[in-house]
TrEMBL record:
This is Peptidase. The chain crosses the membrane at residues 6-26, 65-87, 99-124, 150-168, 174-198, 287-308, 328-350. It comes from Micromonospora wenchangensis. CDD domains: M48A_Zmpste24p_like. Its cofactor is Zn(2+). Belongs to the peptidase M48 family. It comes from the Bacteria. InterPro entries: CAXX_Prtase_1, Peptidase_M48, Peptidase_M48_N.
Length: 419
């Protein structure tokens, strides 16, 4: 069989594996959150809180969509015309057109152009968040964060670009196989190291102070059968008033993190409710599920790029001879951008289902739907969320069930449990 035949077979196997993982690990049937309860919950929220949340979301909307459109246009313009190839050539010229310069500098140049053209929209978003009192960081801090993330992306991008184009050179017929394995391995590696290597670049993490709350949370984790080495507090208040918590990492790097803003704004019972939700993620191995689907998806993407990349009209549009050469990097980015946009709603749906399961876990573990609901109310109030966002936006972007859905789930649970 030819490499191309093997690639088709591999892609089919990867897609099948993704479907199996999706069918087995994603909780497709969600706990009930009747619409009638949602509407009742919406009526129970203070009208001025709902209005303020909606006003912020409306203020963010134009910039978000224009930014998305500009990002897509730039990707298509660079990838589907010879402009991207020109840019890569230009970046390699001072280095005698050496392939490493084209691969690394050219690749970074393509990403940087897209980043810089969408930068005004990021700044605009920050100005809106500041106006609404949600962002607490001045422009200096914002710029430092931005430069840090550029630097981190550049290091990661340089490594990936160098690795990828070395493989396409060494194995011109089989690079897709090595590339797919490398992409999957990178996703797994990043899941392990992000919490210890990347998160500390942006925030300081300190173990939660000894005290009744810490004792309560540790006992909760023990009762839940989830070994948690530590509950960490992130100094999120340096850039936002928003409250949040999350789990990240795998195995030895797994941690539960709460924002310092959460400890400041919420009652201890509400913090317990949030941590119970995070324990649900840990217990159901949601980080593993995300990592596994991410790894399979990345591998499938590499193989699909190889197959699509043999389509001559596409290569001719981009002014390149092969998808595997550095000059075709902008074409790769264009394809990945389009696929990312299409895959967005599916990812959001999967995420919402997983979040709804973690909510159900929090309700069962604490047996305290009233506090759970109070917490949802507070989350929406402090974070200025739209408690019941427009349907299309919700389907496209929402990674969590809406506030009214989460409140309705608590009410349905309370009825069921007779509380
Ligand atoms: Zn969650």
């Amino acid at each position: 069989m030819t490499p191309r035949g093997w690639a088709v077979l591999t892609l089919a196997a990867l897609v099948l594996a993704l479907l199996v993982v999706g069918a087995l690990l994603v909780p497709w049937s969600r706990p009930p959150a009747p619409r009638a309860d949602q509407l009742a919950a919406l009526r129970d929220l203070p009208a001025d809180q709902v209005a303020r949340g909606r006003a912020l979301q409306a203020a963010l909307r134009p910039g978000r969509y224009t930014g998305l459109a500009v990002g897509l246009l730039v990707a298509l313009l660079l990838g589907l015309t010879p402009l991207g190839a020109r840019l890569v050539e230009l970046a390699g010229r001072p280095f005698g057109d050496h392939w490493i310069a084209r691969a690394v500098l050219g690749g970074i140049a393509v990403v940087l152009v897209a980043d810089l053209l969408t930068l005004p929209f990021a700044a605009w978003r920050q100005s809106v968040l500041t106006r609404y009192g949600l962002a607490t960081q001045g422009w200096g801090g914002w710029t430092v964060d931005l430069l840090k993330s550029y630097a981190l992306s550049a290091v990661l991008a340089a490594t990936v670009l160098l690795g990828f184009y070395t493989v396409t050179r060494l194995a011109p017929r089989w690079w897709w196989a090595f590339g797919a394995a490398g992409a999957a391995g990178l996703v797994v590696l990043l899941s392990f190291v992000l919490p210890v290597l990347v998160e500390p670049v942006f925030n300081r993490f300190t173990p939660m102070e000894q005290g009744p709350l810490r004792t309560e949370l540790t006992a909760l984790a023990a009762r839940d059968g989830v070994p948690v080495r530590d509950v960490l507090v992130a100094d999120a208040s340096r850039r936002t008033r928003a409250v949040n918590a999350y789990v990240s990492g795998l195995g030895p790097t797994r941690r539960v993190v709460v924002y310092d803003t959460l400890l400041r704004e919420a009652t201890p019972a509400e913090v317990t409710s949030v941590v119970a939700h995070e324990l649900g993620h840990a217990r159901d191995r949601d980080v593993w599920t995300g990592t596994l689907t991410g790894a399979l998806g990345a591998a499938a993407a590499v193989v699909a790029l190889y197959l699509v990349g043999s389509w001559t009209p596409l290569l001719r549009r981009a002014g390149v001879d092969s998808i595997a050469e550095p000059r075709a990097f902008a074409l790769l980015i264009a394809l990945v951008t389009v696929v990312g946009l299409v895959a967005g709603p599916v990812q959001a749906l999967v995420s919402r289902r997983i979040e709804a399961r973690a909510d159900a876990h929090a309700l069962a573990l604490t047996g305290d739907p009233a506090t759970f609901e109070a917490m949802q109310r507070r989350l929406a109030g402090v974070n200025l969320a739209d408690p019941d966002p427009p349907r299309a936006e919700y389907l496209w972007f929402a990674s969590h069930p809406s506030t009214v859905e989460r409140m309705a789930a608590a009410r349905a649970y309370a009825r069921e449990a007779g509380r």
